[in-house]
């Protein structure tokens, strides 16, 4: 069983050493089980997820919490900086704080096209107390536990949840770019089994005009056989440039079923999606930015399927070993209810 015992370190600037909430966003984890049970999804919500592979409009943050996070967000944006020496990819060296070394990835513009700007990063939970505490919020972790269990072969109603990694996706006004259609597990086959889930949190109201995330209902059933196992579709565009590149690898039946729907998330609301659910988002051409925070989780019992580091800059976990380290803390256990 994974435990949350903080490791003492002289390097207190790395918040991965603190495997429980610091208290800056919502206080401490509840002691009263009722505070967890009030975060449970309804049977209808779970049923919708099982049928479609995603669920939208779940309130997880207050407007005040969103505003505090948006203030913190500014540390990570280089939209107004002179970036003559950067294409937009792997340019964390331009950030103005020493803890940038703890980020797993940083791209001020992953597309490298100045007219299609998407800031994308991983690992900010190790740098920011607010983003650190976000991953522990019961409004997020309790529904995650339910939805991981909903399609799990164990047929449980709740499962222990561990954190995988975070992401920020930010699209500036007028020239915000697209994120091409993809399945998340295509990027995560270095972990096994596939028992993951993603939470996309809107920090601004999302509209079709500003690039809301879209989902393809039922696409969580789209897989390919890899060495006798069910696996994801191949990666077709890692840098978001070709919106429809995934269609090159779809079957005729999948293309007929390819009917994306906009999530239209409201500020402080989240969508939860399966690791095979095809999703993406179109450009932002409005006069305001579109910013989101993404949290990725997996069920306890997930193992490494590589001998290489699972994320940039962290120690490798040998193939076949459980993902038990300070970088993958336990964020929810059904025993707490």
From TrEMBL:
Cofactor(s) the protein needs: Fe cation
- Report the superkingdom from the record: Eukaryota
Segments spanning the bilayer are none
The molecular function terms of the Gene Ontology recorded here are: metal ion binding; oxidoreductase activity
- UniProt name for this protein: Phytanoyl-CoA dioxygenase
């Amino acid at each position: 069983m994974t435990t949350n015992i903080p490791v003492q370190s002289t390097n207190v600037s790395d918040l991965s050493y603190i495997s429980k909430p610091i208290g800056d966003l919502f206080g401490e984890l509840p002691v009263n089980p009722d505070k967890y049970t009030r975060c449970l999804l309804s049977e209808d919500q779970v049923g919708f997820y099982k049928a479609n592979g995603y669920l939208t409009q779940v309130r997880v943050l207050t407007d005040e919490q969103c505003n505090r996070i948006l203030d913190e967000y500014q540390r990570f944006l280089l939209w107004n900086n002179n970036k003559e020496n950067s294409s937009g990819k792997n340019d964390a060296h331009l950030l103005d704080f020493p803890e940038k070394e703890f980020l797993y990835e940083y791209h001020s513009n992953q597309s490298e096209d100045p007219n299609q700007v998407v800031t994308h990063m991983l690992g900010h939970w190790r740098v920011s107390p607010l983003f650190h505490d976000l991953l522990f919020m019961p409004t997020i972790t309790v529904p995650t536990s339910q939805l991981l269990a909903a399609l799990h072969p164990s047929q449980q109603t709740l499962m222990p949840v561990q954190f995988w990694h975070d992401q920020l996706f930010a699209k500036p006004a007028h020239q915000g770019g697209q994120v091409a259609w993809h399945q998340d597990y295509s990027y995560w086959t270095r972990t096994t089994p596939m028992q993951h889930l993603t939470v996309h949190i809107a920090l601004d109201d999302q509209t079709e005009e500003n690039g809301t995330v879209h989902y393809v209902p039922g696409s969580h059933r789209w897989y390919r056989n890899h060495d006798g196992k069910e696996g994801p579709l191949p990666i077709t565009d890692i840098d978001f440039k070709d919106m429809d590149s995934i269609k090159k690898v779809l079957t005729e039946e999948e293309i007929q079923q390819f009917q994306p729907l906009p999530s239209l998330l409201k500020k402080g609301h989240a969508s939860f999606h399966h690791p095979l659910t095809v999703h993406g988002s179109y450009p932002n051409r409005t006069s305001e930015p579109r910013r989101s925070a993404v949290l990725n989780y997996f069920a306890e019992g997930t193992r490494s399927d590589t001998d290489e580091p699972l994320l940039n800059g962290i120690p490798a976990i040998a193939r076949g070993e459980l993902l038990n380290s300070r970088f993958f803390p336990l964020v929810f256990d059904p025993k707490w209810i």
